[in-house]
Amino acid sequence: MVSKLQAAQIAERAGIALAIINGTHEAPIARAIDAERGTIFVSQRRDGARKAWLGGRLAVAGTLRVDNGCAEALRAGASLLAAGVVGVSGSFRRGDLVKIMTMTGQALAQGLAEYDAAEVQAIAGKRESEQAERLGYAPRAAIIHRDHLVML
């Protein structure tokens, strides 16, 4: 059942309605509606395929906690910058999926990390001008670029 619910979540994000019904009969949708059996998931949003995938089935490898200003910026469509990160947990590598939480522990978003956990820990809360010194190389534009981030 867990896999069915995960599929429903992915479909909802992609703008697709989904029904969990017995499909072994002729005209299964009509039969389920007539019998009032099954569960229908109606699309709540219209994310692109990539964002639906990011919000769906990938396993989360770590968590980043962000300050209130950063949370508002993310809600407005911004990328996740190091300056707004106040906490790092988990052991993740560049390219892994990480969850973004608010200061109160609310799941806010998730996306693909541009840094590993140790690098994020080193630059968390730092402005771009301070990051190169900490990392030993020129920093990337964001910890998670908005194109690789989906709001929850």
What would you note in describing this structure?
There is one protein chain. With 152 residues, the protein is an alpha+beta fold. It folds into 2 domains: 2-54, no CATH class; 58-151, Roll (Archaeosine Trna-guanine Transglycosylase, Chain: A, domain 4), CATH 2.30.130.10. It contains 6 helices and 7 strands. It has helices spanning 2-13, 28-35, 49-55, 68-75, 117-123, 128-135, and strands at residues 18-20, 39-41, 62-66, 85-90, 97-101, 107-112, 149-151. The strands form 2 sheets. A 5-stranded mixed beta sheet has the order 4-3-5-6-7, with helices on both faces. Strand 5 (97-101) and strand 6 (107-112) form a beta hairpin. The longest helix is centred in the first third of the chain and has 12 residues, at 2-13. The chain is elongated and about 65 Å long. The mean pLDDT is 87.
